[in-house]
Request: fold
Amino acid sequence: MKKDFSQGPVWKIILSQALPLMLAQLIQLLYNVVDRIYIGHINSGDGTALTGIGITFPVITFIIAFAALFGAGGVPLFSISNGAGKTERAEQILGNSFCLLLISSVVLTSVGYIFCRPILYFLGASDESFVYASQYLRVYMAGTVFSMLNTGLNGYISAQGYPKTGMLTVIIGAALNILLDPLFIFIFGLGVRGAALATVISQAVSALWILLFLTGKKASLRLRVGNIKIFPALTASIIKLGTANFVMQGTTCFVQAACNSTLHSFGGDVYVGIMTVLNSIRDIFMLPAHGLISGAQPVMSYNYGAGKNDRVKSVIRFNTLTGAAYTLAAWLLVFAFPELWFRIFSKDTSFIEYGVSAIRIYFFGFVFMSFQFAGQSVFQALGDAKHAIFFSLLRKAVIVIPLTLLLPRLGMGVNGVFIAEPVSNALGGIACFVTMRRTVYRKLV
Reply:
């Protein structure tokens, strides 16, 4: 039965969508953290293996960027068509996204295997960390198609009003991963290869779960064989809107690469490992914010397609206030217990000492991220590709990357890399939110 997001209290609908997604992301995050804890304790916890895995993050992020381009780029269009009652067009968007995801995954897998070595050294690998990075990435790349289908298609389940099913997609994969990790890493003695193999298997199972749902009777809008092809006009629309997601993830890839290479130059492998932990901690605290936005976006898109602009404005207000309150509380929590987070990942005292100083700088002004989320989500949900792309580029490509490369060379050393993050949060977040209020929000009458 078709889910109707245009009836009932907006905040209840958002939470009914968001809470299952938050739970799913929490399980996924638990896996990511546990995975990095296991890896961090390989070789008596000296951090080298963790540093090697950190080197691969930009590559993995780049793969996710393409999943966001062809998958998440279609979800708002899918929801708008659903809200307007254009079910045939919605199913064509789903089939088109699936086809694009398959094609791009084959291309990315081939490129990854061919250029693995030069890519990892370009990203800041040393001879020592390259060993671990290469072992992990070569196994991980075998599951690229599963990773892309998970990231790109799961949103189509939640957009139909089945957030609990979307939640199970993530939980199934993450729970299987958590079970397989210690088995493959320690019992079978596969080390980082075991961590990557566990990830590939779990992603394959999750991808199968998604496909069974989208082709089954429970889905109100299905993935049909006849729609698995390239529709030129739809492809152009998907790419146009998905470019914002691609830029957001793609620039994250380049930010990670710039951070790793700069930290390696100014501080060595230990600071690349510290950045790996900082990324993990940031993922922990961004989880509820991402869950809220993910739950709210299809509600915004659906009501926008149905012409109910007053409800769209209610979603925006709820997102903004809730997000600001949460990120402020998270910021204070990090400052209160900075050492705790690093002790989870490593026993190395110097690693912890340097990390505590870094985390205080890196998370300063974390609250401004809520304004970036609030503004960016509106542009994406309502199909405003122009602003969505611009503000994706502004914070990371225009602010973070130049500062990451420049500040250390102006005498700040490794601290310059960490300072770039709060500066970009403040400038980018405020600019994005103010622009959304003065443009899109005012037109919702």
